[in-house]
Design goal:
Blueprint lengths: L2 H25 L4 H7 L5 H9 L5 E4 L5 E4 L2 H24 L4 H22 L3 H19 L5 H32 L7 H7 L3 H16 L8 H7 L2 H22 L8 H22 L5 H25 L4 H31 L3 H19 L5 H13 L6 H27 L10 H16 L8 H7 L3 H24 L13 H16 L5 H7 L6 H7 L5 H31 L1
Antiparallel strand pairs: 1-2
Helix pairs in contact: 1-2, 1-3, 1-5, 3-4, 4-5, 4-11, 4-14, 4-18, 5-6, 5-11, 6-7, 6-11, 7-8, 7-9, 7-10, 7-24, 9-11, 10-11, 10-13, 11-13, 11-14, 12-13, 12-17, 13-14, 13-17, 14-15, 14-16, 14-18, 15-17, 15-18, 17-20, 22-23
Amino acid sequence: MNFGDFFSAILWTSPAAVPLLLIIMLALKPSRPLAEALAPLAAAPAFLVAVFAGVGTVIEVPLLLGTRFGLTETTQVFLLFSAGLWLLAGLYARFYMGDGGPSVRFFGFFLATMCGNLGLILTRDVVGFYLFFILMSFASYGLVVHGGSRQAFRAGRVYLILVVAGEAFLLPGMILVSVVAGSYQLEEVPAAVAESPLRGLIFFLIFAGFGTKVSVLPLHFSLPLIYPAAPPPGAAVLSGPVIKAGLLGWLLFLPTGEAGPLFWGTLIAVAGLAAAFYGVFIGLTQENPKAVLAYSSISQMGWMTVGLGVGLLAPEAWPLALAAITVYAAHHALAKSSLFLGLGVTERSNSPRTRRLALAGLLVGALAIAGAPLTSGAVAKYSLKETIATAPGSWPGVLDALLQVGAVGTTLLMARFLFAVLPRTEPGKLFAGLWLPWAAQLGLITFGILALPGNPLQTAGVTLSFSTIWPVTLGVLLAAAFWILGPRMGLEATPRVPPGDILVPLTWLMGLSGRLREAGIPSPAARLADRPTNPRYAHYSEKLRVVYPTWLESSLRYWVVASLVFLALVLTLTFVNLSV
């Protein structure tokens, strides 16, 4: 390897290598102060790679069985907004978390999650993507449980259960993808999957595996628990770069742009519509503003899923669909993470003036999510509208009408979020370091339209169309009417759905057997075990015993141990590859 190749390898691996190096420095007491100072800037190399590295360049570095790094036009956009958000959230966290042990612990998991997230965007092979993805998924657990409360650990348990379930789908899916493609290179995957006789099985495994991260129904119930549990900078990256990693997985591993069965395109589009409206309906019943934002993310990711389904239904229009999904992902990552950072600023604002400024900033982010004119949300929804027009049959008319209705619902949901923020206060010291990263994000949401390719003024003009203005206006009027007339008509006493919604009946069913035993009523499994003529049922009844949280925690610890052993095997393969 000559000097040029060595320099290229350092450049392309730095987005993942720098966070790992800082984790090692945090673990060593002499280097810990320096690592704490540098940790907020760990995403800077990734941002520089996104801006200055060439698209289409692919290099191979001697990691694992030979890992390839590079950028496509799509992953460049993902890397750009992901690295930018990691950088802003890191600077914010430096002042929000303070100094000491909790800060070191937070940045340890923060850097590990960042390494996995940025690494999976840059890698161009199946093995590398999978390993970075599981690193990101398991390391995110530390961001969820950082607060140390009972609610945080419950959210962490639920999150880990879904992570393990997702890996159970992803691992066989990745193996099948590699087998049918006959290669580990990502660019060969879509065409190979489209032509494979196992296409349906691969579709299911990949869609479900990444669906746990995207929070597709019914795999959504961890999101309303983990967002309220995580501190604002942790929730910002979980709602921005981390959740978009699942979307990127779909874009890379599903046969997008290839002729395929209409069944899967239809199914994905319908699943996206279900999530889009379900998130609004349940979000309107929430009291915690972070839970409202969680259901908003479920809804917004649903619209991106609709774009994916339309792209599968009309493969010839996939470039337009891909551009719309990418724009929507960038917009949502910036706007949603700005709302979480804004919540931290609002809670620390202990004077009326700073609180009014913070609420004004939250209003900007909420209007962007709603798709108000001249915001990034309006551009995203217009791009999705253009994609919908390419769908076959009667899809365009139906989806366009639903998109407009959905915009009204999103506006109402953002109004619910702002109403939930108003009475909440948590006095604390407000640093300029909290304002500056947040203000930068608000600037990107407001003026980021000027950075779009083509004619930005023309793009800004189309967002002022009637179809963009009326849903937001109607949503604002309905919210104002509810605010004024609701108390007089008793509408404020609407039913409240607990965060996690379907998790409540699931938990009840899981505990039913235990409650029956406490009441002296044998469960069906116990009856089977007590049958004298069928002693083997005793074994099966033991298998069917209720899954208690303590048992779950114990089992998940074994999963974590297994993952560590797996990572040790990965390092062994790396050293073997280096020695060959």
